[in-house]
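Revision sheet: structure tokens.
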Amino acid sequence: MSQTSRTDRLVMGDFTRPDGARHPHHPRSYEITDPAEADAVRAVRELGRRLADAAGDDMFACSCGDDDGTLHPTPESYRLLDPLSPDGIPARHRARWVAAAPGALREYAGALAAGAEEPAPPRGVPLGVVFGWLGAVRQEPRDAARLLADRAPMRLLAGAATAELAWAVRESDRTGLEGAVRFFAGEEFTTRHPKRRRVPDTARDLLLRHARSHRPGDLAVLERRLLRAPEDRIRRS
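Predicted:
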């Protein structure tokens, strides 16, 4: 598969609506890598410039993420780039993220994508599934759903008991371990009381082994933050 050309990659800046409304999970900047979406953005930019030239007004300015920092706002540009527009590019990115979520988590993902700030967490979903959801997040492209891709699984994991998290580590495949290392090395786990950071040796060894092989940059953090439990007491009831 060929890499996305830098010519097709657009870095979009912040978008400010006249009414100040914002999507709670929209990043301050994101990338557009789909060639058709990039072409659509360039087309509305050019239309805006032509309209501004025809009106004799070259002072339009907005923070909509044009290459040179300016964009002449038109109804079409708001429809295409407004994070709250149901037909906009940010909404398309979020919809693709929801479609890629595990089935048991898709309703939760959809609520976040629609703009819910604190939707009810799903019931009965194994934490190993959530680790896998986080581990499957690609660092590229950094699209308009990238905040959700990190924030959604992290929220579910942050509310879980350490013993249950440790058991889920033991049940995780390589993708799940990728997500588990990211979680245990992050602030959501680190902010716990020291007693809640004591991880049994079985889970701790799995995390350190995966970090050593696949995420060496997290190894020192894990060694410092994963406190040892007195013994491996986790049992599946």
